[in-house]
Amino acid sequence: MAKKATTYTDEELVEGCLDNDRFYQEMLYRKYFSSMIRMCLRYTKDKAVAMEIVNRGFLRAYKKLHTFAFSGSLEGWIRRLVFHSLSDYFRRENNKPQVRFLDLEERDAPVQDKALDQLYLEDIMKLVQQLPDASQQVFYLYAVEGYTHPEISAQLGISVGTSKWHLSNARQKLKQLIRTNYNHAG
């Protein structure tokens, strides 16, 4: 009886894929497909588009697998490649993703629409990288990964209130960064 995709170690999967073994390529795809499709469906509600993005991301992963050095998680590495495919898709289509974290407005004056219109997903993620580490991590888990505050709390060992504070802090700092970096084109 064949083993499930999740029972193969990342090392076994990478080695098999590097040998161009279709079985291991399929097992790698099956192991990480569900988390990648969930990520893409947060940005587009069109399942066909999400599938196209995921498949392009996995194609990138297969082509670049020889560069994976096991210095981080394989899933995180694949997620980055799928995320690049997602960004490329929206840039190519000149479309803006409807993602939760673009809802930066809570109580303050709105960020100018023209500034948000200029932003691509990749630009926003570059701004996210400028956030303090803890706020960046909570923001990423909430906005990109789709975790709830109780899930983030359990994963990071912080209270739900602290998770909410970090998300609010990240939103405020992102608004400031957007105003600073993108409102000049008003």
What does this structure look like?
With 186 residues, this protein is mainly alpha-helical. The protein has 2 domains: 5-93, Rna Polymerase Sigma Factor, Chain: A (Orthogonal Bundle); 100-185, Arc Repressor Mutant, subunit A, CATH 1.10.10.10. It contains 9 helices and no strands. It has helices at 10-18, 22-41, 47-64, 74-93, 113-118, 121-128, 133-144, 149-156, 160-182. α8 packs across α9 (160-182). Mean pLDDT is 80; it is low at 95-118.
Number of domains: 2
> Per DSSP, what share of the residues sits in E-state strands of 2 or more residues?
under 5%
Q: Given the structure, what is the number of helices? A: 9
**Low-pLDDT residue spans:** 95-118
Main pleated-sheet profile: none
Radius of gyration from CA coordinates: 18 Å
Shape: globular
Q: What name is given to the CATH topology of the largest domain?
A: Rna Polymerase Sigma Factor, Chain: A
Give, in order, the helices and strands: HHHHHHHHH
SSE-based structural type: mainly alpha
The total beta strand count reads 0
CATH superfamily of the largest domain: RNA polymerase sigma factor, region 2, helix turn helix motif
**How many angstroms does the end-to-end distance come to?**
63 Å
Overall pLDDT level: 80
Which range best describes the helical content: under 10%, 10-25%, 25-40%, 40-55%, 55-70% or over 70%?
55-70%
CATH architecture annotation name of the largest domain: Orthogonal Bundle
CATH top level assignment of the largest domain: Mainly Alpha
